[in-house]
Amino acid sequence: MFEQRREFVVLARHEGGNISRLCERYGISRKTGYRWLSRARGSDGDEEALQNRSRRPRHSPRQSPPSLEEAVLALRERHPAWGGRKISHVLARDKQVLVAPSTVTHILHCHGRIDAARSQAAQPWQRFEHEAPNQLWQMDFKGHFETGFGRCHPLTVLDDHSRYLLCLKACTNEKRETVQAGLVDVFGRYGLPERMTMDNGSPWGDTGTSANWTVLELWLRRQGIRVGHSRPSHPQTQGLCFSPPAPSRGRMERLHATLASEVLQGRYFVDMPQVERAFGRWREDYNQQRPHEALGQKPPITRYRPSPRSYNPSPPPPEYDASMQVRRVSDNAQVSFKNNIFKVGKAFIRESIGIREEKDEGTYSLWWYSTKIGSLDLKNHNVCLGKSS
């Protein structure tokens, strides 16, 4: 597909890009990868040369002032969530039409394309972001919507530093297996992040799990990914902190609002392939074309780099030192230790855990790989599970 070719070319052109690894992740030979790069270079950097036919010219030398309103309104029609700054930047970048953002905003107001009450309600906010790509990915389900084949649940994964939309997948449910399958595809293309964060909703694991440990979380930790969960009414844990008074909207909420207004609003989808096509086109535009104010009006792909850490489909089992006693968790989520039965949670079923004696007599710590998952008190016949990074 053309969108994959262009994404490959842009990522391969970044300084320090590993072309061999990119070719492997995109499922192409090095010869094919270098051919794509050569075709892009052969057209003076015009990446649209990667498709068989040019859809439209990149330059509009005959663009005249009388057609300015038409150009502004057409761009606004394609991107209903864009304001004056984005439209001004894109007109200059793609059509060499220089127009001030204030002029664009005036045109939109004159044609009734901006809700005055909504624009006046805008609140100042402060950005928080990680220093490099893949230090933190955020994951969430956007609220479902009805289609001709039933409910669709959009799964989204966003890189915190670059705002690069790594995943926009149309799912028929919010089950762990569905999320896991989607992440395997993402990891295969972009590598592994250092951390992932999500909310505390049930889609991210099995309900009823002790101390909120989930099967999905353990699966991520096996890949060396630290997992965190956002707290209710704490938008800074999702990448944004607003100056009061302001609504609790983080990066994912802003992304979902844009997706709703630009793709879903006023549309009815007949089947899953139709949704996937719409999602694919919009994700390409969001990552490679759409200006982002926080990035100096540059698209996210200018700041994103794939991770050097690759996905391991068969991570090694845990190993514990001689100071620990190893127990295997039964199918009913229990372990037997010193003639006692303790329940450790459904997420650890069939897992091997380490038990280490602590200084206090009758007290033991519980470990899974290098993660301390809780403590065991023989005197009171009690297990306390808790999380650590």
Descriptive notes:
With 389 residues, the protein is an alpha+beta fold. It folds into four domains: 2-50; 65-120; 125-285, Nucleotidyltransferase, domain 5, CATH 3.30.420.10; 324-385, no CATH class. It contains eleven helices and 15 strands. It has helices at 2-13, 19-26, 30-41, 68-78, 84-95, 101-110, 116-120, 176-190, 215-222, 251-264, 272-288; strands at residues 125-127, 137-141, 145-147, 150-159, 165-171, 195-198, 226-229, 240-242, 324-328, 334-337, 340-343, 352-357, 363-368, 371-377, 382-385. Strands 2, 3, 4, 5, 6 and 7 form a six-stranded mixed β-sheet that branches. A five-stranded antiparallel β-sheet has the order 9-12-13-14-15, with no helix packed on it. Strand 14 (371-377) and strand 15 (382-385) form a beta hairpin. Helix 1 crosses helix 3 and helix 5 packs across helix 6. The radius of gyration is 25 Å and the shape is elongated. The protein starts with a helix and ends with a strand. The model is unreliable at 117-126, 206-210 and 232-249 (pLDDT under 50).
**CATH architecture label of the largest domain:** 2-Layer Sandwich
* Strand residue content: 15-25%
Please outline the major beta sheet: 6 strands, mixed
Low-confidence sequence ranges: 117-126, 206-210, 232-249
Count of domain modules: 4
